[in-house]
């Protein structure tokens, strides 16, 4: 149970910090003077992973992402029942973080709320423009493949990066966000997409919840492919 709680807390921090940076300090928040670039949002997600990796890594492995858990399971590193528990608590953590962000947006003073609504997002939800289904699907699949491959490689018992694994994984997530934010807002993490999509629907924006299937299916396919690839790469044959 400690592993599940650790995964819930880790995912909570990832979504709170990552999506929070996009909501409150993302591009377009000009009236507050706190606007940051895509690079800033990317680092918010990456640094969250690094922080959690060195906080809960020794407890649960710090997956905080159902796609990573699926890749680890497919690689034979954990049983299916435990993997399912990880995924469930990751989604719960993302929903709690999204609820906190929703409250922060809607309980502020009028000027603050207006500034947030002048931004590109009020929930941090992932979505793609109409007609961009194929590039969005490919982006989420390919970038998840790269991300999970780095996770599997750096955490491998024999060929891994040891204590530097958390740093490598977090910086890889920064790179993924820099490239993918303009396409989908970057998910590569089904839990990160599910939580904000729910609260976007509560606000009346149903596009993210209608498109959330892509941010589940594409990352899962990418994770399975990365597991297969890593098995080939690490083989002694």
Helices and strands, with pairings:
Blueprint: H1 2-25, H2 38-60, H3 66-74, H4 80-106, H5 110-117, H6 133-154, H7 165-184, H8 190-202, H9 207-211, H10 214-234
Helix pairs in contact: 1-2, 1-4, 1-8, 2-7, 3-4, 3-6, 3-10, 4-8, 6-7, 6-10, 8-10
Order of helices and strands: HHHHHHHHHH
Q: What value does the average pLDDT take?
A: 90
Number of helices: 10
SSE-based structural type: mainly alpha
Head-to-tail CA distance between termini:
38 Å
Strand content: under 5%
Overall description:
The protein is built from ten helices and no strands. The longest helix has 27 residues, at 80-106. Residues 29-33 have low confidence and may be disordered. With 237 residues, the protein is mostly helical. The protein has helices at residues 2-25, 38-60, 66-74, 80-106, 110-117, 133-154, 165-184, 190-202, 207-211, 214-234.
Sum this structure up briefly.
The protein is an all-alpha fold and 237 residues long. It is built from ten helices and no strands. The longest helix is centred in the middle third of the chain and has 27 residues, at 80-106.
């Amino acid at each position: 149970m400690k592993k599940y709680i650790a995964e819930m807390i880790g995912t909570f921090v990832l979504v709170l910090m990552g999506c929070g940076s996009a909501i409150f300090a993302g591009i377009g928040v000009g009236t507050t003077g706190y606007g940051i670039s895509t690079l800033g949002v990317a680092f918010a997600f990456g640094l969250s992973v690094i922080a959690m990796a060195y906080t809960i890594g020794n407890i649960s492995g710090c997956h905080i992402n159902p796609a990573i858990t699926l890749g680890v399971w497919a690689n034979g590193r954990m049983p299916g029942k435990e993997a399912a528990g990880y995924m469930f608590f990751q989604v719960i953590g993302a929903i709690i973080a999204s609820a906190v962000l929703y409250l922060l947006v809607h309980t502020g003073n009028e000027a603050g709320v207006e500034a947030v609504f002048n931004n590109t997002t009020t929930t941090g939800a992932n979505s793609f423009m109409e007609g961009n289904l194929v590039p969005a699907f490919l982006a989420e699949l390919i970038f998840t493949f790269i991300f999970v491959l780095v996770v599997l490689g750096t955490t491998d018992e024999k060929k891994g990066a040891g204590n530097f694994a958390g740093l490598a994984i977090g910086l890889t997530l920064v790179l993924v966000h820099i490239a993918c934010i303009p396409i989908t807002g970057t998910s590569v993490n089904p839990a990160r997409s599910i939580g904000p999509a729910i609260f976007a629907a509560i606000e009346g924006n149903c596009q993210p919840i209608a498109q959330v299937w892509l941010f589940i299916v594409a990352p899962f396919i990418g994770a399975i492919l990365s597991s297969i690839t890593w098995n080939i790469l690490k083989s002694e044959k």
